[in-house]
Design a protein that fits this description.
It contains 4 helices and 8 strands. By secondary structure, the protein is α+β, with helices and mostly antiparallel strands. It has one domain. Strand 3 and strand 4 form a beta hairpin. Helix 3 runs antiparallel to helix 4. The longest helix is centred in the N-terminal third of the chain and has 39 residues.
Amino acid sequence: MLFLLVSLLIGALLSGVWYWLSVRHNRRKAVQVLRWIEAALAGQGHVVGIRWLAPSRFRVPLRLTSGVFNRAWVSVELTPCEMPLRWLLSKIRKQQDVIIFQADLDLPPAFSLDVHNFRWFARSSRKTSSDASRWTFEQTGPFVVSSRMSWQKEIACTMTSLSSNTNRDFSNISFQKDSPHFSVTFPVETISPTSPIRNYMFESVRELASSSSASLY
């Protein structure tokens, strides 16, 4: 009985230390991400604060110079590491830190649209050779798999703009009639100092948001 009690106390102590170190790590990482966001805005706006929603998730309000956005903010979701099991699962799933940019638009969309970007899907077997030189590759253009039989004009115009956008790092793009009107999700690493698209990442976000307003004319 005493051994069990001691084991539980040690386990609780180790869990507490792990949690404290994880929260401290996330606080330091948040400061780094805030600097990345400020630099990636490239003079188009500024970070005006931070609000923690969870140990691995925080919200950053933005003050933007662009007339397209109103009440803009980003939510940053870091890899959950405050609990050992969650941290292990995130590593197994190769979970990434992500940024979710959200804002209202001057002209709310006349439609609701949720677009998920899937880059690659492969299925193989143990008998398939791992030697890439023996594989046959075919390059295709972008295509859309839709859940609707027909599209209204506004959606068609927006989809044309999305398919012509050269930035393929957006994992999810959403247009909604209600607030927030616009939302886009992309990996935090795309605005890191080593990212080749860092300087025009938010410019791509602005162009995407403008596509819904352009479709109204």
